[in-house]
Amino acid sequence: MRKIPWVVPGILIGCLPVAAQVIAIKAGSLIDPDAGAALADQIILIHGNKIDAVGRGLAIPSGATTIDLSNMTILPGLIDCHTHLADGAHGDGDPISQLKKSASRVVLESVPNARVTLEAGFTTVRDVGVYRALNDVALRDAINRGDIIGPRMFVAGAYITITGGAGAMTGLAPDIQLPWDFHYGEANSPWEVRQKVRLLAHDGVDHIKVLSSGAVLTHGSNPKSQEFTLEELQAAVDEASHFGLRVAAHAHSPEGIKDAIRAGVASVEHATMIDDEGLTLAKQHGTYLDMDIYDEECIQESGRKGKTPQDFLEHDRELGQIQRDNFRKAVHAGLRMSFGTDAGVCAHGENARQFAWMVKYGMTPMQAIQSATSAAADLLGRAHELGSIKPGKYADIIAVSGDPLRDVSLLEHVQFVMKDGKVYKH
Ligand SMILES: [Zn+2]
Questions:
Q1: Rounded Cα–Cα distance for residues 176 and 42 (Å)
Q2: Around Cβ 318, how many Cβ atoms within 10 Å?
Q3: Measuring CA to CA, which residue among 60, 29, 52 is closest to residue 42?
Q4: Which residues of 174-199 are buried (b: 16+ CB within 10 A; e: fewer)?
Q5: Spatial separation of the C-alpha atoms in residues 396 and 425, rounded to whole Å
Q6: Residues whose CB is less than 8 angstroms from the CB of residue 394 and which lie 6 or more positions away in sequence, other chains included
Q7: Residue-wise pLDDT tens digits, 147-184
């Protein structure tokens, strides 16, 4: 039993009010993704929700609460840049199942998604779309108020998509009228795209998600197709910039990927069929590739259980391996890569399983860790407050037993989680 009055092992205490006090963490090995190095025998001093000081042999102030993690490896809280926390319970592979639930049921089913994600060591997520518009905004705000437990969420509010496109609720008879929140982001011209960006900015979103090609997990969609035009993508990026928002573009097809990069998006999601010209453009523009190379395992597994609709499996054929091979090319080309899993395809809380696959397909363990820490924070535009354990940044800190630089799969077993200076798992 550790001598911390307010920590009881196995019980979450993050919801208890804690006065702004000093916490000292004794770190065994501390991974600094900014430097790409592991530092020995570090002390981290935390005041309130921020990191005050980090260094070897720092004096621990009297009255500080000490957390001894000297036999563990300490890392900054992990960041998943592609999640769908607010779509309700995981398990049914067909989006049409959303029509059997009320919006409030979906968002309440999402509460455990947020909790297991945080407990898995992901203290921040960039959530990139919901079937029912603004459920993600509600979930984010409930976490920020302290009503429920979850990671810091940065949210998109809705998919901006063409009619019948990758982000639409499809597969219904044409005379079925959907509620407004199932097609809030539908847009079919540059000016309609601008209008949707304006609405979402007013709704308080943190970034914009556009769908530049067809999708795997959408009825009637072809992932090899192009959806928005270059003009529409440029309108999205320009209008979003007026509100200080960045754009993430879903794209599988080579042309969908390249037009999104040309338009100036911050990241391309999936980037499945990126070709050599696309790799060159991404390098020139400094675009992040956010490639979900693990979730293929879950799509296939769910297909074997008969849960994934047959047309989705047909879309997916060959694409999984193509994406993994292109991930390896992108790593070798030295592109900016962020960690994004498409959580919701696999169960929430399993996000860290992707690390081993990133290493299998060409990254070093340090590069894989950087993709989920310093690089992810940079993609979010928040490198000044997230992504490494440095003075002035949020006290988002995790710990694992052993050395993840030797075996990155150790990150699947995070044993200590602090977010915002509060301990959620110990
Ligand atoms: Zn997604």
A1: 61
A2: 10
A3: 29
A4: eeeeeeebbbbbbbeebebbbebbeb
A5: 12
A6: 49, 50, 51, 152, 385, 386, 419, 420, 421
A7: 999 999 999 999 999 999 999 999 999 999 999 999 99
| Residues ≥6 apart with Cβ < 8 Å to 331 | 337, 361, 362, 363, 367
- C-alpha distance from residue 300 to each of 261, 314, 346, 357 (Å): 30, 11, 11, 16
Ligand 1 centroid, distance to 398 Cα (angstroms): 25
Task: Report strand pairing: 267-270 vs 288-290.
Answer: parallel
**Ligand 1 geometric centre to CA of 163 (Å):** 18
| CA-wise closest residue to 351 among 64, 78, 74, 33 | 78
CA–centroid distance, 126 to ligand 1, in Å, is: 11
Give residue 271 CA to ligand 1 midpoint distance, Å: 12
H or E segment and range at residue 118: helix 111-119
Show the 3-state SS of 185-233: CECCCHHHHHHHHHHHHHCCCCEEEEECECCCCCCCCCCCCECCCHHHH
| CA–CA gap between residue 259 and residue 266 (Å, rounded) | 13
Centre of ligand 1 from the C-alpha of residue 67, in Å? 37
Q: Which helix (H) or strand (E) holds 356?
A: helix 353-360
Q: Are 112 and 105 in contact (CB under 8 A)?
A: no
Q: What is the pLDDT of residues 38-94, one digit of tens each?
A: 999 999 999 999 999 999 999 999 999 999 999 999 999 999 999 999 999 987 778
**Alpha-carbon distance values, 328 to 80, 335, 398, 419 (Å):** 20, 10, 28, 32
